[in-house]
Amino acid sequence: MTSPAPRSAATSVAARRRSAVIAVVAAVDFVLLLLPPIHWALQPGDAAGSIGYFIGSGVFVTATLVLFTAIDPEKGE
Fold first, then answer.
1. Which of the residues 15, 21, 32, 35 has an alpha carbon 20 to 30 A from that of 41?
2. What are the TM regions of this chain, as residue ranges (predicted)?
3. Distance from C-alpha of 21 to C-alpha of 42, rounded to nearest angstrom
4. DSSP characters for 1-29?
C-alpha cells in the first residue's frame, strides 16, 4: 500500500474553511428548527405564516445537506 500524499498548506486552509462553513450552516439550521419562538415572533397568530415557516425551514435544512455534500465530498458517508 502507498501512503497518501501530504497535504499542502493551501489544502489545510481550504479544509479549515470548509469546516467553518459547515459549522456555521449547522448552527443556523439548529436555530431555525429548534427555536420555535422565532416563527411565533415573525407571524403571531397567522397559520399561513407558521406553515410557511415550517415548510421553508425544512426546505432550507434539506438544501444544506446537499451543500454539505458539495462542500466536503471527500469525507464520504
1. 21
2. 20-39, 51-71
3. 26
4. -PPPPPPPHHHHHHHHHHHHHHHHHHHHH
In the chain, the amino acid numbered 74 is: E
CB atoms within 10 A of CB 46: 13
Asked if 10 and 3 touch (Cβ cutoff 8 Å), the reply is: no
Query: By C-alpha distance, which of 23, 30, 2 is closest to 72?
Result: 23
Q: Nine-digit cell at 52?
A: 410557511
Q: How many Å is the Cα radius of gyration of the chain?
A: 18
Task: Give CA–CA dist 61/14, Å, rounded.
Answer: 23
52/39 Cα distance (integer angstroms): 9
Per-run averaged pLDDT (10 residues), the chain, 77 residues: 59 82 89 77 73 86 88 66
Kindly state the cell numbers that stand for 56: 421553508
